[in-house]
Input
Amino acid sequence: MRFANRIKYYFRKPHNVILVVLAITLVFLTLLPLAALIRDTFIVHPSEIMTVRGAKVNDFTLFHWRKVFFDGTKSYKLFYEPLWNTLKVSLFSSILAIIIGGSFAWLITRTNICFKSFISVVFVFPYIMPSWTLAMAWLNFFRNRLIGGAPGLFTAITGIPTANWFAYGLFPTSVVLGLHYSPFAYILIGGILRNMDANLEEAALILKSSRAKIITRINLPIIMPAILSTFLLVFSSSMSAFAVPAFLGTPVRFQVLTTQLYRTLNGLNPGYGYIMAVVMIVIGLAILAMNQWYLGKRKSFVTVTGKSSNFSLIRFKKSKIPLSVIALLFVVAIAILPLVTFVIESFIMAPGDYSFSNFTTQFWVGKGREDIGGGEPGILLNKYLYMAFWNSLKLSLIVAIVVGIVGGLAGYAIVRGRGTKIASLVNSLAFFPYLLPSMAFGAIYLSMFAKPIGFLPSLYGTFFLLVLIGSVKYLPFASRAGINAMLQLSGEIEEAAIIMGVPWWKRMMKILFPIQKSSFLSGFLLPFISCMRELSLFVLLITPANRVLTTLLFQYNEKGWNQYANGINLLIIIVVLLINLAINKITGASIDKGIGS
Amino acid sequence: MKKAHLYAIVILLFASLFNAFAEPSQELVNAAKKEGKVVVYSITSRISNAATAFEKKYGIKVEAYNLKDGELIEKVTREVGGNITGADFVICQDSGRVYGQLIAPGYLVNYIPDSMKNVIPKEYQNPLVFQFINKVFIYNSEKTQNPVIKNVWELTEPKWKGLVQFKDPKQEGVNANFLTMVTSPTWSERLAKAYEDLYGKKLVLTTPNAGYEWIKRWFQNGLILGNSDTTISENIGIKGQKAQTMGLFVYSKTRYDDAKNLALLPMTEVQPFSGFMYPAFLQMTKNAKNKNAAKLFIEYLLTDEGFKPWSKDVGAYSSNPSIKVDPTDHPVEFWASRLVFEDPQFLFENRADVEEFVNTLEYK
Output
């Protein structure tokens, strides 16, 4: 009886109910798939009857493990070399993102340069664009005669041919991914720099410490957690990036794990792919563990004291204008210029010919012509485009709402239940999907939900499956935002309401949510944007009838119908920007608050 | 007796003539119209034009989706295997996998319209071939109208280093099939002979046979792998290039010559082959929802009218011999002796090995 009472008491607290429900759901949606993935590395798949001779579908086999790890040169080429390349790309792009994003964060928050608001708005553009479109822009600029055709704009203007290593392979892949994810660094590091207690710096200044010493002894230790989080996020994102290496690496046969993953999953050896996915998850976990270990052993710094935040900006004098101009040109080059090339490229007929007579509106409003493309009409007349557009919008909105609500509740429950085992379990489970490489995650859901499980019917081909995977994958964004929002709130506010007898849902709706509205809303925004420009997560799960814009875009890019592709890309960016702007104006939420600190 | 023979022949001729222009039965049309809709997955993008024409003619809505060959096979495996509603019929390619993964387990069902039974040659009836597609050696013809190579072994010489392009065999099954067929006994023998003809000495092997050897040397001579045949056709065909370039890609891409201002010409007399040719199959899915509409569309695609989006350009060859190829092109019989064809059984048994081999070749 006492036991039953204890349970009853336990569940009387709303956060306990939330924690238990979330724990069960997340185990089902993240850990079970992991088990399914591991099982998939040991069985024969339908397309492997060509490879695993004499075997039947669903037989147990060690074939995949042997081939991937222990088959001499073949394993080296199949797995070890791509693994090595993946690690290099992820490392370089993380470093680049931290340097670029960090520098801009410092310039914007700590100095007196001009154009601050413009730069801070435009700097996040590369994150909004689907990552591989930056790769396309890179090729537009720097392609050389290795792949023939018209030379890139850079060569056309300067006459200097670009080197192969510069145009294709490791270098451009790392740079493009680094640029794409540098907004992460900008947001995370910027957030800390903005809220940092200026007293520390002032104290050091009074004690006549040198600038260098202030940076190394005060600023760096304080922003170190942000740098590490950035590293974790960018590293795992770059590791699971597929399209960028696919476009920039193929000409020189530069392979990374994801390109091998895509090939094997869509080709003859999905078993290999599942093993690579496991390896990628293990790497992600290792980095997370390192991160936790570092954060655990260091002393924590209270950064938000609410005291003084009107710290003195570093005042550039002579160098102010040149520095501002350089910063401006840089963001224009990485964020605006690609957009301009997309506009131009969507209007030209013959490739590489920029004369006025070559301009055409064929690819926007033309009727289908068989001598260009496959006879597909211009994108504004294309019924499949509207279908995909509607699907994308619907998917992103639903995912954002689901994730925003679940993330907010998770944040509430985790913070209220702080210190309990179940709270830290839910906390880790809610972050775990971030470490699952998108494409591998898609592959697992594909094999798990293609058949009925328990009371669930087969979900393959349903829109619901896309919503489900999107929600799980982007939950980390919203749960982080939720946790941060709740941590900043003193528990007394809610306690006061409890004493007054205000019911739980009313406390949430009337007190907690309104106070931290912009933080919570940011938990909606980032999933929305990420979902609008996501490819790898959906590429394996999409059936033709529920295609989204990015898969359509990727298909056009792959076919080499660049005009259509550039047009669609523009559409995606414009929609995201408009919605971002609207939400920003109405509610004050913005992406930079989404990841929190 | 002789007269009887003659009558028989005349009757047969008439029958086949009649068949060639036969309309689908009214029953089928009515049943199809009742369904009102048909879904097709296709490896050729021009299906969208045929779909528009079909919609106009019968008032039946078409959802036509263009997929890559591997993608299509994966989707059909999942959808039919899981009994999920998807395509009613497909236009698919990649014989080895189509036979082994889709036809053997019964996911795809063969259907030949009555009107076509006496028209389409028997060997193309099961599985029903929709058309043949060819990829041939094509060069930039801005400076010269004469073929730039006579023998495929020339592509392994330093002078072609970095100037030849081919779509990544990882991205399209038929390209991997071509490489696999090259290692077959027949073709490796011919390659060995071609090597001797060109250099007057025996080929020294570092790999299992002359086919593998050619692949290795070709790939390691700076062969550039692309993501799309369209992009490759632009890269090769664009005017004003300093170096002479060439590639092995879909012949029908030369149809872009005028609109995109490209200079592309095919080579047909390269030893021992000038490229490769592969079938695209027309198959119904086992769980097709709109069976009659699918049958009607299949029948339509096999007629002159239905094949228009393809036949008005080079590089498309219907399995229906009464549909003429483009006047500047050659019929399948011409290509038969010049191109590498697919052998599903050989592909099924050897493709995995060849893919693995190709994956180990460094870019050099």
User: Anything to note?
Assistant: Confidence is low (pLDDT under 50) at residues 299-308 of chain A. Chain A touches chain B through 58 residues (CB under 8 Å).
